[in-house]
Protein 1
Amino acid sequence: MGRRPALVALAVVLIGCPAAGVARADTVTGTTFYVNDEAAGCSDTGPGTAAEPFCQIQPAADAAAPGDTVRIAGSAKSYAPVTIRSTGTADAPVTFTAATTGVTVAGPRPATAITFSGARYVDMAGVRAEAAGASAVVVEDSRHIAYRAASVQGNIGDGATALIAIDGSSSDISLTRLKVYRGSGPTAVSSAAGARNITLAGDTFDSGGVSAVGTTGIDFAGDTFRTVCGAISLTGGTSGSVENTVALPYGTTACSTTTADLTVDAASAPQVTADYNAFNPPSNGTDYDWAGTAYATTEAFRAGTGQGAHDLDQTDLPIPASGLPAEHSPLIDSADSGAPGELSTDVNGRPRIDDPLVTNSGTGTDDRGAAEFQDPFTVSGLRVGHGYIGVPTSAVAQLSNPWSDSLDGLTYTFDFADGTTVTSTTGSATHTYTQTTSGSGIEASVVVNRADGTRVGSADYWEQVSPLPDLTQTFGCWNVPSLPDTANCSYDTGFDPYPVSSDRITFGDGSAAVSVTASSDQVQHTYRAPGTYTVTRTVTDAGGRTVTVTHPAVVGAAFVGRGPVRLLDTRSGTGAPKRAVGAGGVVRLKVLGVGGVPSSGVTAVTLNVTDTGATASSYVSVYPDGTARPSASNLNFSAGQVNPNLVTVRVGTDGYVDLYNAHGKVNLVADLAGYYTTKPSGYDPYVTGLAPVTPTRVLDTRNGTGAPKGAVGPGSTTTFTLPKYARGEATVGAVLDVTVTGGTSSGYITVSCVGPARPTTSTLNYRAGQTASNLAVPCVGAGKLHIYNSAGHVQLIADLQGLYTNYQADGPDDPLAPAGRQFVATAPTRFLDTRTGLGASAKPLGANGTLTVKLTKVPAGATAVLVNLTGVAPTAATHLTAYGDGALPNVSNDNLTAGQSRPVLAVVPVGADGSIRIHNALGSVDVVADLEGYYG
């Protein structure tokens, strides 16, 4: 060769970990030659300096002397094949190193990429070798050669040629941390007879295995084989050791013959030791072939040879297809750290470390195989709150830390993708966006580093930034019959990117405000008195925004049906002295503690009041004892008539109600239909609320609606069924307007949920030929009702006005039943009188005319009102129909003969405009209406 180039640089001789067979002396330095075929001024005849590098490796190899280093730059192209004849010394080896990744040596088929020929003390690291049709790496007549930290790949085709071939005149050869890929064929590495001191450590082999014939001192340590036809074959008197090696099948390809993962012939067996290995052979292979005997398990191998005391096989674990151990694998921390040739780093240059989650079962902390299971501490994700303009949002790095590493010293660099970067030591950061995003958003990210600057990991998150939404909330209050004095209010704050700083609810009764913390929930409040209250919720967020909403809460009394039970009959002395009530006379009737009515907690009772034997035209007013008598009447009658009317009246504080007769003498009868209570009752199914329904005709024997067509006979019971929504367990009672017409004689009817037993009370009394009506509140059983007729033949009509339903209504037990509302009794108040112009024009209501009457005495949100409706002196037989809004229903409330004045109790739905409507069918009639209470 020509003169050596001048010394142009000094460098540390050796890079990376020491390799077997190459001595190290940190004090020896030499020339550094540079190779870079992409450099503009590269020349193979130049000095090989950094400024004027060689284009190829060969001139650098030819120029290198003991202690010199050849630095090879990465290239998009492959470097030409090279033959290394360099001769170093134990203290001054010749070093070839890849300056960057991407250094590949390859030639045209069938050229060998790298040949060590007659070389001494050479260390090559990071240089990839590729070949086709020939060995990729050949070592011939060479000593103290280290080839490491590289990949070797080739597709030879011929099964006899190895990808890496070592001849019999070579010795002290170290092949470490190599990734060897043989496209086909059984042999990846061959060592010929006569070779000495060969080390294969920390290598991975795909497809091909290693064959050594007559080799003295070949050591395998921490290798991983994925092979088709066996991993290691030692024959011809080979000596050495096989430790910490992992072997498993290469995919599903089967070998044409039965082979073993480890084959040692009889000539070699006395000179080879095997331990701490793990074998999973192919389905048609076996674990060992030792001295001519096959062993299918490690247990059999130990028993037959005394070797493999710590080996594992397919009965101990399935090795993953990648050959890499997973957490808790038996491969982890189970190797012999002192095995001949064992490296302190794995195939990827990572340290052999202790896994704290696995008990050490080897001689140290090394894992079996080429890859060491590393600390899984990493960045598993990044969570960023949705961005809103002007609102701080938080980003949090999510860590996966199974080994519970200390987090001290970690730094987190957050990039919010809008030009803002924040570094944190706490794993979180806050940022306020000022612009919205579009499409998929912007990619925020975090990078986590240790205190020494090494990287733990990174994660990203596609962030959307939206305009700030308005602060909104929903709020509503309701109650259930079982807790009639209690309002349940549910609330939900609409999405607010700001935290809520204040959330207060006031209940409108002077009680202290309640502060709530959940964004959605419900609260309960018990009121001391029935009525309608305004509940207010005010929410303020950290952005200074406030929103207030209100909702009415109606608390009152629940209805409990009782009876019919006769509480008063002046003809017999029941409930009062046995005598007719004279003009201006008052009957004090005790109702609390009588007839099934509790002695406390009752606000009102419902009575069916009947006059009989009147000596003069008169009226009766029913009102609470101890209060002033109202001007409104509940019952109007003429001498000699029998007239009933349903009455709901508040109970005096002493438990009595009063019945006042205006003129003449009259006997009074009162039958209990039920009572209203404010006392909580748990889940008593008989405690109900009123659910107004669209007025519906459910029975008319004139046309066959609900029952056979035709007048019913004396002593008969007619059974009819309510609509489907009233047939479940939640429906306990009904509100019916019942009418009789065309009777052939005087009689009475009784509405009941029990039939056909003859009742002892009446709902409606009638005279021959009379059309009469009354409101009834009977109990309901499975949606069925019964009407008993006492005498003669008569037509029956029934109009459904409402239902009394319990706590099961509108729930999973009875989803069809409408939920009932509580009753708030009021002092009887006249709000309509066409005779005086109260509530409407001062003139009778004409034929087919309708009055719309605004309910000024009823709070907003009431669903229905209880009204005593009176028709006065019609010019023709007619009927009045009271309803809320919409189309005129085909029902009637008050049936009148010409000249008759008659009151009836009516439950009337409140229209959406806060009004009720009253329709007159024929002639003209004055209309009077008195408010008795309302339903929330």
Protein 2
Amino acid sequence: MLDNKQAHQSNVSVSLPNELSVLGEANFEGFRSQLTRVTSAFSEEKKAAIEQLLQQHSKQMIAAFSLSDFISHIATQYPVEFIECVDELCRQPEHQFLHYQQAFSDLLAATDTELELHANIRRFRHLCMLEIAWRDMLYQADIKESLLAVSELADVLITQTNDWLYAKACQRYGAPEPYISENGNGEVSPPEAQKLLILGMGKLGGRELNFSSDIDLIFVYPQAGETQHPRKPIEHSQFFTKLAQKLIAALHQTTIDGQAYRVDMRLRPLGDSGPLVVSMGAFEAYYLEQGREWERFAMQKARVLNADSAAVCELQNIIRPFVYRKYLDFTTVESLRAMKQLISNELARRNLKNNIKLGRGGIREVEFYIQSLQMIHAGKVTECQTRSILSSFEMLQKHEFLHPEIAEELRSSYLFLRQVEHYLQAFNDEQTQTLPDDKIKQSRLCALLSEESVEAYMQTILQHTNRIHQHFSALIEDSNEAGASSEGDITAVTSSENGQGFEDLWQLDLDKEEIFVILHSALECADASEHARATENLTDLLLDFKHKSTKHRIGQRGHNTLNKLIPLVLQELIEFTEHAAEQKTAKGLEALSKAIFGILLTILGRTAYLDLLLENPAVRQRLYTLSATSTWVAEQIKRFPLLLDELLHPAYLQTDDDDIRQWRDDYQSELRLQMLRIEPEDIEGQMDSLRYFKLTQQLRIAAADISGTLPINKVSDKLSVLAEVILHHVIDLAWHQVCEKYGVLEGTSAQNKGLGVIAYGKLGGLELGYGSDLDIVFIHDIDLSLSTNGKKSISCSEFFVKLVQRVSHIFTVKTYLDELYEIDLRLRPSGNSGLLISHIDTYQQYQENEAWTWEHQALVRTRYIYGNEELGNKFTKLRHQVLARPREQAVLRKEVADMREKMRTHLDKTNDYKIDLKQTSGGIADLEFLTQFWVLANTRTVPVLSKWTDNLRILDELAAHQVIDEELAQGLQKAYLYIRSQVHRHNLTNKDIVHSEEMSALMALVKRTFEETFTG
């Protein structure tokens, strides 16, 4: 018997508008019809009892069905199960989750097959989530209890499913060897069963899971060994990998009963490219040797879901010191500042206005705020090492790391936003944090929040997000951008008289003559005609920008920003050209002004970028410097304004002394972190993120190139490494997508795909430029008789063709960030008429028996850049064999010379006004053909010539083995570097190539050597 308080609470506490009531009644009738159909064979007595329940609780049911499509759908999907629990639901308003453990255990005890397991998991999950949504929406349940209920349900389903599958795996493969641990004192623990340890990350780890959240997991097993099978034992790594795959499928797979959870494994060591499960030793070694700052942040919430054991205790002891350092170091604060900037940049870049998690003042900012304080203080004060955000509020306040007033403001706003998020997701069991546009969901939110209108609840949400963002902005403030640039650029501060003049230029309705007079007095040019020309050009540019800006709807805030920004920009452009020696001309001012106003016109509709420029003088100065030096950079920023974010904290100002290995490691880590922010199923988001990564890294390289902090001989190296890292990630993405549809080939896995990639041309020679395409060829070494194991099985050849097609698609499809890279597959066996990918044996047969001489020339520049070591060794061996084959010197000389002449005829763009430094006589192509000829002619007697793919080191070896003399080698190297630098500088700046005596002499050397070699 309920007391009065409970009876009162169990009444519907939400007032419903008419449109929701109508919807609820329609859904109720649909449910009632389904219930009647499935209970048609029930006894009359049971039917009468059901009818009584319908009459008694129809009001609550209609209310629930009106507020949540999910409740309506699940009730209709499982009508009998729902009607059996509705009485309890209506009588007990508080969440009931302590019974989950026993109830699901009883269900699994009667489960025999994996098919039954999948059905039972989903049915149990859906009905329990229905109960949670019911109590949330009808009785306004405490959000803290709601989060705990959702988390407890996930814990039970994950751990008990793991135990059930573990038992089945032991029956099939034998149980793993018992685990025996040893503590620091040499004491040995009693043997215990070796289980798959499951780390719950994110909100699951903090027991604050969303209603419809992904679950982020990491799998660890205690130690290596073999299973105890009498006939066919397998390695522990195999056992636990198979078990993990079964567990993911049990939770993630979509069946006729739907999906239990979306499982995200990307936070594991090495992400998608890492093994699915790792031993505890490998886990510890990874975080000790390779763990990044952002991974410390992620591991703050890591919780081992398994029951307590010696292995669980040991795993927790590995995580704790990695996350929390006893003494705070500078890198921790800097990494927090960088992560905060990443959040701010994302806000500026993406339209997240109505996203209560990722938008300005959203849930993420509270979580970052609290976790940052923990990262700083919890190493010394261990009581603050909590996984729950709500518990962290309490501990940080208790130890005076968080002011009580700030704590209360953040906590109340956080709980309010979590409640709104919970409602949004419970409407239809969708993972969303975006405030709705459709009227039904808006009406639901109004009713649940007791607000009279959409405008009213939007205002309430805005108050909370403003309060959060104010505190977030004050966290770990960065003063680097407070003043003018520290790079030696000019300051933006000028006299008040000139400042007022520039404001008048922009804000007053002046005619062309009036603008000309103001600008003429502000500009300084020694030559009178040049002075007039500069004034005329800038006047026209400003008038054109004024006219075009009126066509953009940017709102009052945008206009206010523009009114402050444009006078500053005008003043700074003039001062910049006066102080910069290269720009001290009318032409220099015109070019720079045109570039800057072109960028401003592009971002007119994006107030966040206007704000960024207004509030950061140093960013403006960097923009002027880069745009004045490189038209390519200016054009990139104009096409992709999100690159402005990169000017906030310019890493390019630091001298880059790293090597290729370090660049590769850094790129891999940064790209992985960036991709983790994208949902695995968001293919478009992944492709955009890859493009954004390439654009930003390419800009950093160009900026470092321009500023002189990256030596020119390293620019191409770094661009090549960037392309390789992106290629690796694209292949991983394509592999996942193709395997998901067709299954995998026997003997292959995400870590060993059987696929290899050969880089040709500039990528092969580590000589990539800013606009270079990628010349690549795909090979594999998998048995051609195999087929995939998916529902839609395809042959080995079909599988790899589809994989290459998918890779090509990801690279070349045009998004708003353009294509990733243009890739050229024409150098594959038989060119465009050949297969997209060849078996290594087919590739070898082609190179040995069918390839033309020019294809062997191309082979000189090839490098194996992706794939397993065994396949790479096969390629390296056959490459050497082909390059070292005996050749008739006269025939070889004629074939190479004929091909060079054919290329020159068709490709040389030299005319009276410009010179084509690549194809003209004495240009780069002549030098490349020389080195290729010498390699093909001499590798048989000088095997080391096949080792290198770049021209400089080939020339070193040719001289070292007296194929050519040392003086000639040095002269050709100098010519190659000089001509390449001129081409490179032209591509970056679009400035005419200056013909100097030095260049003429070097090109003459190349031309003379070419003629002597091929005609002498």
Protein 3
Amino acid sequence: MAPAAPRVGRRTVEALLTAHQDSLRERNLVLIHGRYLPGAPARFTTAVDNEPRRVQVRDESSVLGVTAAWHDHRDTAGPGDVLVVTTGVDDEQLGWDLRGQAILRRTLTVENAEIVTQRFGATGLDVRMYGMEWLLEALLEAEPSDAGWPRVAGLLTLDTALRALAVQRLGLGSGEGGSVNGSQAGPPTLDTDTLLAWSRTPAGPLRFAELPLAERTELKKWLGDTAGLAAPVLLSLAEAGLGHDAMALGVLAAVLRDPAVAPDTALTIGGLFGQVMPRRAALSAFTDAVEGTLTRWVAQARTSSSARRQVFAVLDRADQLAETAGLAETLTGSRFLPTGFAAQLGRTVAEARRSSTAGETALADLAGHGLAALYPDRVQVAEMAVRIARWLEQPEPAVATVASGIRSQITDWGWADRALTLLWAGDPGGDLATGRELQGLYERGRARREVLDEQFARHLAAWSAHADARRPNDALVIENVLETAVRPLAGAGAPLVVVLDGMSCAVAIQFGEEAEREGWREVVPGPVDGQSAARTAAVSMLPSVTRTSRASLLAAEAVRGGQSVEAAGFSAFWKRHHKKAALFHKADIGGETGHALSHELMGALASETVVGVVLNTIDDALDKGQQGRGTTWGLDDITHLRDLLSAARSYGRPVVLVADHGHVLERGGRSGSAEEEVAAAASPRWRTGGPVREGEIEIRGERVLEGGGSIVVPWREDIRYTARKAGYHGGASLAEVTIPVLTLVAVAEQTPKGWVGLPREQSTPSWWSESLPADAHTGAAQSVFGSAGAATQTARRQDATGTEARKSSATVLRATASLGSEVVASEVYAAQKEYVRKAPEAKVVATVIDALVAAGGTMSPVALAAAISATGRVRRNIEGFVATVQRLLNVEGYPVLGFVDAGHAVKLDVPLLREQFLPQPKPKKE
């Protein structure tokens, strides 16, 4: 009785033809003991002895069938054509006549081990493989049809064979199975990252599920040993038809890490896994692998739209499964679910309403959510909520004078306006519960600001009755800005004065931060009378509208008028100081095709002429609603601004960004507010005649250039006299009357004598950053910033309090300097460094850590770059450098280091840093 016929595929046939190519020179019939696989090609061409031969394969189960096949071949075959007959009939039954026509005059026996050795080009086979018939048959069946198996020099090991089989069966290679990651230069890495990505491919899991049971079992076992405990769980899910949902299930199963998880939750999760529910250790490994892979995908998704879609395809599916299974409420603490992020965002705002400390704790949890990097705008709203909570916990502020009110607006309350604007706009994700919490916090903040606006308006009315450019009573008025804030810069080169029509303090703060990130240094007059250095701000002309304020700014005197008045006044002022000047309005700025700026403007910038440029983007947007809800502004949002800054840098010009007036936004009606139907209203925010109503004040004086020197203006932001627009100006609120002035230099040599640098840390109110001692924060900033010569002289004139603050700051720096050294000397850091190509020097990373610790954990990118420069290493691309250090410090994706505040600051989580790199040994139990 003949042995059971083995399965024979095309590759086996080709191997036998190659092995007996000499015999095929004389004969063209090949008899093989076996059964040809259904679906395998019956006709194909293959190379035999380096010549193409056409091959026909027939599978016959009887002597008559074999004989008929041979006769058919003789009648129809061409020269050189080969007939291969697979059969289970033994030689004795076939007879000598038929066998005499075949090569070797007998039926060939298939030796799978020999054929596998040949197909891999190996010299021998791992001895363990001889007893693994399933593997040998699988290798013969699965051989890639295009290039065959990869050639092996020497012994074919079991691991090599299983790896090749797994790659082909799962479709991970670049052959007919395709690849998860596209074309590859070499074989893919068989790790959990690769396998989880494979599970998201359309046909990947199905390919595995269709394999024979023995093969699936052995591949799961081998991949478990190779890729870890997560691999068998994933493949079991693929077997059960759940492969495409595997990652989503892994996200949900993370809740089972909690020992206190409710039994009902565990049962529900088990139901989602069906018959595949693994043991605790394997499930833990699987959820860890899923979260690790998602963390890496999230990092890629920050710059890749396809990666972002990949991440949310998994997480949205996880949310769907949770909702269907009734787990949505239970999983609100998930580190990856979008609904979990929304829930944590809502908790953060709710906690901030309770107290800033509670809000900070919740915000730290939100920052640790796996999706925080993909929702920077939503995280920023939470940060603003916590900041407003801190501000509301500060002692109740008050306006003592017009000068103090203007100073407080530019140094403190303007920051509150910036935060309140984001709270008013709501959660960008549209979560209604979060929106209600934000509204409650916003209303508390606006109530405080309204009190300040009323106080300021009353002081403004009294001050305006006798104030003018010669007697400003300690305040900087807009008509003196050119003399006070611009003229001192002319000694280092003709300045560029950019008038940003309608720029409020909240907007100016954003421009200052972005300009600093791009290498500009803000400089201000040195502090006097014991005050600290601060950003400059002026009082607008009244009413705070373009016709009065911009003309007075550019003419350097109280005057009203249009563009001709502005241009003439600007030239006249600089002519008095022996300088040529040119002013460019909207129609004169844009260049011809291929040129961002006009030839006339570029020519002026290239000369010694003082150049003024008026940019109307903000005012136009408020008038026409082009900025939507108007929550944020950047340099790119202002037409021509970036081109002007670039040209100024190229020509060595210092730059002054100055407003002519601020603005308030249309935020809808509130109780007691309505559009005023006033016939004498010439503007949305000022009028003449009629009684003074609630929320208004009458102002008279020489600096009131409309209404015959007397106007009625609202200090409440929700009062308007004309049709609804996106925003308004002309009133008496701090946001409208305060004129921010940003003086920027590209190099320290452009700093005027007696002026000092103003790094972001020093211009930021303490409550805006984490609740840390402001002196340490400022001292750290001053240690890395300073104006050449002038800053040092000014620092020496600081009062005793300031001196002690710097001493305290230096002590903090010395005390914490060792943390960076300890981290870079740790075993964990050494292991992390192995995965980072061209890692920065250890001393540079240590400096980064120590500088951030000394600054309270948060620094602006420019301040951090300055700290790094102290090591002798200049980092021009600070964002790229921080990204590299993140790869060193963010172990397993935990956010030790990262950007916050929409990329305007770098934050170090010091407790998490210690936990990851310098863990404390657990106390021994008694």
